Amino acid sequence: MNGVLVIDKPEGFTSFDVIAVVRKLTGQRKTGHTGTLDPNATGVLPVLLGSATKAQDILPDHDKGYTAGFQLGIRTDTLDIWGEVLERVQTDVSEEEVLRAMESFRGDIMQVPPMYSAIKKNGQRLYDLARQGVEVEREARPVTVYRLSLVSFNIEKQSGVLEIECSKGTYVRSLIDDLGKKLGACAVMTSLRRTRACGFGLPDCVTLDALRELTESGRTDEIIRPVESLFVTFPEIIVSDAQAKRFSNGGALDISRTRLRNDPPPDGAVLRVLDGKKSFLGLAKAEEKSGLLRIFKLFAH
Fold first, then answer.
1. What span, in angstroms and rounded, lies between the C-alpha atoms of 7 and 144?
2. Catalytic residue among 38, 80, 178, 204
């Protein structure tokens, strides 16, 4: 069984819990996922099955989308509502002030990752150190926030909901914590739902209960997406039968002898290779050697 299952991760499950359920239901032992979600978060979790697991390190779309709740006036050790409360303050922030503060967090920004994260420092996970009560200095890292909008704000409760589209490595908890600081107070994340990952959205998802029902009725194939669905953002090249055979056997193809001869891709470009029937054969990477631009196999189905 090869392909992608896009799961709507339920609250209270770790990403590895989801993997365990998928393994049990599908019988596929070779599985992986494309980005960890915290147990209290929900939403889009693409699960890779079989040969799709080989694509984990070459996925083209690492951007994510989220809907996140926040509460002003609270600071915790985990930067979310489930952590130990370290501070409570009264706030009287207006919606206009929140909107103005948000302007600082759009585009390319520097962000310090939270202590409760899987990032390593001197060989140790930060969350392991945090659980020991140890806090270490973390370097700010560049991330990109493509879109940050305020869905709602309750002035009486001093709470609201954000919609965020961001690059890989962006911590929404840290974004909300920084927003609270920008407002001269503090803030925590109160909910998190991932709305997009690897090009998939919530409409593409299936719940674990629905997966269980489909598996029991022998209809799992209806919801397994093909491996090539991970790579739709890459341009395609259709090759002849002879070229398809050569490519499948690991041979390089000369661009000048393909349909891209008049419009060759730049050096380093990644392409989806299809045969004459538009069946996906794998990914290729264009490489310029000895003055010739050839394509070499990067990933095989």
1. 25
2. 38
